[in-house]
Specification:
This protein has 505 residues and is α/β, with parallel strands linked by helices. The protein folds into three domains: 109 residues, Rossmann fold, CATH 3.40.50; 152 residues, no CATH class; 210 residues, no CATH class. The protein contains 16 helices and 23 strands. Strand 16 and strand 17 form a beta hairpin. The protein is globular, with a radius of gyration of 26 Å. The N and C termini lie far apart (57 Å).
Length: 505
């Protein structure tokens, strides 16, 4: 039965034929298929991977009539893509009699049936990207297949979990024969990023072991149109325990360069890519950074889409109590000085001369204990009260599970990423997004970090801050970050990566 939501198109990225041919040849899939292996594509789109198998066989001298088309199986959710597939295969390759083995249905709800080989290119989308109607349909499956422990995790930090991870584990658990193999084009974030995809890296699918036996990372090679995500190809063997290091190939200067990959601290950590382990030995000899629990690395302040209302480009003193703030959207907003804080920007990390130069300011209607001002407290500051209530029609309708818990309690001026830690007198901060070098800097006073662009460690004492700065400035820390190949991305040096270097008292 065609699902009622079969008109939705989720993260469809079609495999270029030349790279489909590369994959089937790399793993000798055509020969295995000709010798009787069954092959299944769980999200087959318009059939590009099937076409690669057929063309490879034809180029090897086989006629279409000789091909075991009856051993090709697949599912496709989108009805339009499914009908395009059928039409192409029937017209171009006269594939008619057994094409019913490719069905229009949701892979997540198709019956368990096992195959010798799985070859796929799952949708390139996170849970957060899915249509709201479809989120409710697939949400329980992330628990069923062990990718999250509780449903609400998908509303919090794990909302960026890849849909591809769910497709891979279901494929292994329910659709791959014992000791079978699977080949997937997929986002590299599943293996290289912190947080959301950690459970995938237990390398189990419903208590069935699987091993990734090699990885091909396209790095900056663009093979998928309009896709900015890092992507690659992984080869999986069912019923094998994961072993490290894993052969890891990067496409550099039009050829594959061989490295190997392994997690540094824990088996479920993101993989680090390396040619040798010299720097890992150096890292092991580096003394631990020992900190109190409150000094956990943090991301900066998140306005939840209200930057124009909280962040300003100009600040002019009116008197000892008031300042005038302006940005591109609004001018000369008068607010109490005590709730206006300097906000870090890239220039603050460029050189020592710029470290303390303020280029942006952020309004934080908060107490220094990290809690939002109470409604009665805002009334003590007429300018602040008037401004917040003037902006209420927008602030009260910001979207997001966590921010809405504050709004429903009456704190429509709340932000995320604000706590007692935000008001610590010393911060070791660094640019966490889009960089290739790790340059931690010590900031003293009221400085605040900006969303995921920067991260920081909040501290109470100057000697402690200097000690942490020294530790983080050691070159081996940068090598550790570079080993995860996240240079230039949003995951370059987010707090989770630095947290692994710290021992908390």
């Amino acid at each position: 039965m065609i699902p009622f939501y079969a008109d939705i198109k989720i993260g469809a990225v079609f495999t270029p034929l030349e790279w489909g041919l590369w994959a089937v040849r790399r793993y000798n899939l055509t020969q295995k298929w000709l010798q009787g292996a069954t092959i299944f594509d769980p999200t087959c789109g318009e059939g590009h991977l099937f076409e690669a198998l057929i063309l490879d066989a034809i180029q090897a001298g086989k006629s279409v009539q000789e091909l075991p088309l009856h051993n090709l199986y697949g599912t496709e959710l989108n009805a339009t893509l499914y009908h395009n597939l059928r039409h192409k295969m029937q017209v171009k390759y006269q594939w008619k009699t057994d094409i019913q083995k490719i069905s229009c249905q949701d892979f997540f709800f198709c019956s368990a049936k096992s195959f010798d080989i799985i070859l796929g290119n799952p949708p390139w989308a996170t849970f957060n990207d899915l249509p709201e109607s479809y989120k409710h349909i697939v949400k329980p499956l992330f628990i069923k297949y062990g990718l999250v422990e509780k449903t609400n995790e998908l509303l919090l930090g794990n909302s960026r979990i890849e849909l591809a991870a769910l497709i891979v584990v279901k494929s292994i658990a329910e659709h791959l024969n014992t000791n079978g193999e699977a080949i997937f084009f997929m986002p590299m974030s599943i293996l290289l990023n912190d947080g959301a995809n950690k459970q995938f890296r237990t390398y189990q699918a419903q208590n069935i072991d699987f091993a990734i036996t090699e990885i091909h990372d396209f790095v900056e090679k663009s093979i998928f149109e309009d896709v900015k995500t890092r992507y690659g190809v992984i080869h999986i063997q069912r019923n094998q325990k994961m072993q490290f290091p894993v052969p890891y190939y990067q496409f550099v200067e039009n050829s594959w360069k061989e490295y190997y990959a392994k997690p540094i601290f824990h088996s479920t950590d993101p993989l680090s890519i390396m040619q040798n382990e010299t720097w890992t030995q150096e890292l092991a000899q580096t003394p631990n950074i020992v900190l109190p629990k409150h000094a956990v690395p943090r991301q900066g302040i998140n306005t939840c889409g209200a930057n124009d209302m909280f962040i300003f480009d100009d600040c002019q003193e009116i008197n000892t109590h008031l300042v005038s703030l302006s940005n591109k959207k609004q001018k000369n907003i008068v607010l109490p000085r005590e709730f206006v804080y300097p906000l870090l920007v890239s220039k603050n990390f460029n050189s020592a001369a710029h470290n303390q130069e303020v280029n942006k300011w952020v309004l934080l209607p908060y107490q220094t204990n990290g809690k939002p001002l109470e409604p009665a407290q805002t009334e003590l500051y007429p300018e602040l009260y008037d401004y917040l209530h003037f902006k209420r029609p927008f602030l009260a309708y910001r979207r997001g599970t966590i921010i809405n818990t504050w709004i429903k309690r009456g704190y429509f001026w709340a932000l995320l990423g604000v706590g007692r830690y935000s008001f610590k007198p010393y911060k070791i901060a660094w640019e966490a997004y889009g960089r290739k070098e790790f340059r931690p800097v010590l900031f003293t006073g009221k400085w605040q970090a900006n969303q995921s662009l920067q991260a920081y460690i909040p501290l109470d004492e100057p000697y402690q801050a200097q000690q942490v700065l020294w530790h983080l400035s050691q070159g081996v820390i940068e090598k550790y970050l570079q080993s995860m190949n996240m240079q230039g991305t949003m995951n370059w040096a987010q707090p989770g990566k630095i947290k692994r270097l710290i021992q908390f008292e």
